[in-house]
Structures are given as structure tokens and as C-alpha cells.
Structure prediction request, 118 residues.
Amino acid sequence: MTADITATRTADDAVTLTVRGPLDVLTAPDFAALAHQTIADLTAGQLLIIDVNAVNILAVAGVRALLAATQLSTAKGVHSYVLMAPDHDARRVLEALDAAPQLPLITDAAAITGDRSP
Prediction:
């Protein structure tokens, strides 16, 4: 299986990384590469939203990649959020791995577009 991972820049200069399909040991390296490239192109204060609502499998490697991307963006001063519906099956994975508290999870991207605090 492959994942479809895209980066889209919005009019307000925010970037959304959208992941569709599995985020697992096979696809996490592709996600990590695009996330790192995207973050490298951003400047402090910009906004990165990682949309995982269309992820159908979230494995440990995918969680690690999400954590690494948000940590890298924080270190660079980029405000990053992981967009995930409150009832998404992947939330159980995040909770089982105790990763949910470490990720800046949001359920509505519109709610943070004006809030740039990390």
C-alpha cells in the first residue's frame, strides 16, 4: 500500500501536509522526507497543519514520524498542529502509545488559523 502525501500552501501562507492512506513503516519515510523539506522551507512564525483525517492505518512508525515532524517544526519556531477528527480510529493508537499528549492535536483547522502560539 502507498500513501498519498501532499503539501499545499494557503493564501495566508500556512502549509497543510495532507496524508491519505496508511502511515506505517513503508510510508513513514516518504512522509518524513516531505515534512522535513516543507519545514526547512518555512520560517519561524509560519503555520504547518498535518492533516491525518484520511489516514486509514496509523502504525508506530507513523506516530514516530508525526512526533519528529512536530518536534522539528517547534525547534524551528514553526507552529505545527496535527488535524484529526475526535472520533478518528487513529486516536486509539496515539492513546495506546501515550503519544496524544505530545502532539498538538486539533479537530478544526479554522480554529487555529488566527492563533500562532505553539
